[in-house]
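Known limitations

Structure tokens in this collection are predictions and should be treated as such. Users comparing against experimental data should check residue numbering before alignment. To illustrate the layout, the record for PB1 domain-containing protein is reproduced below. The input appears on top and the generated tokens appear beneath it.
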Amino acid sequence: MAEGGFVVAICQHGGEFTSGPNGNLIYKGGEAHAVDVSREMSLDSFKDEVSKVFHVDVTDMSFKYFLPNNNRTLITISCDRDLQRMVDFTASAAQADVFVISRVENRSVVTYTGASTVKAGSNAHGDKRKRTASKNKVSKSNKKTA
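Generated tokens:
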């Protein structure tokens, strides 16, 4: 950990994830800003700082990072304890890459990595999807051939 009990979060926003040759995720493009993160910092304070440096509203943003030596699994920061863990887990590196992504992009990253968050045929609440009937739908059996 850097002197004073903090890590430097290299916050990245506006780029996109691609898959490397060995299956690791690689973030390309966008902007990057350095933000000091102490173990005592609250997630709200961190979000305020990120909002200021990027000049964006982070209300609908997710914050994610990789554990050291693991560029396959993104770890979500969603509470103060998650932010403390990031500082602890990245202590030996003294810096952490933090990806600031919109919740829509977040779903794309999960899909792109092959992970599934919702069981096929159901929604996030576990309910079966309801099929809506189309009034203009023509089935094969009702189709007339010329």
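For this record: Residues 6 and 31 are 22 Å apart (CA to CA). Residues 115-131 have pLDDT under 50 and may be disordered. Please report discrepancies through the issue tracker.
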